[in-house]
Design goal:
There is one protein chain. With about 120 residues, the chain is α/β, with parallel strands linked by helices. About 40% of the residues lie in helices and about 25% in strands. The protein is built from five helices and five strands; from the N terminus they run βαααβββαβα. The protein has a three-stranded parallel beta sheet with strand order 1-2-5. A two-stranded antiparallel ribbon has the order 3-4. The longest helix has 14 residues.
Length: about 120
């Protein structure tokens, strides 16, 4: 890659894992901010070098939910538009079991497809 070229990127987000990790580690308010306004996070993620994000996918269980400080449920399906507005394709991954959805498998297959595609990704 030459200096003037931009990095060709693909971003795959396991929404359920990111949001539940943020809720547990930093609190529900931080998780809710990420879910409703992912643009500041995305800007931070992509700011270090010139890059073109050619593929954006967000894997989400629409029936999953985030509890706020009062115990109210905010269903993940309500956060879909925020990621679509940022250019992400939102892939529904409904639960396969009581505790697990198919996001890991879908993501792995999509990453393999992206790596095998004619488009070259640097990261």
């Amino acid at each position: 890659m030459q200096k003037h070229d931009s990095i060709r990127s693909a971003v795959f987000i396991d929404f359920d894992n990111v949001v539940s990790g943020l809720a547990t580690g930093a609190g529900p308010g931080v998780a809710h901010r990420f879910a409703t306004d992912p643009e500041p996070w995305f800007d931070w993620l992509t700011q270090d070098q010139p890059r073109r994000v050619l593929l954006r996918r967000c894997y989400m269980n629409p029936a999953g939910y985030l509890l706020d400080e009062n115990g109210n449920r905010a269903y993940f399906s309500a956060f879909r538009r925020a990621f679509q507005a940022l250019g992400f394709e939102v892939v529904d991954c409904p639960p396969l079991t009581r505790m697990k959805n198919g996001a890991d498998l879908r993501m792995a297959l999509d990453v393999m497809d992206a790596l095998a595609a004619a488009t070259r990704f640097d990261e």
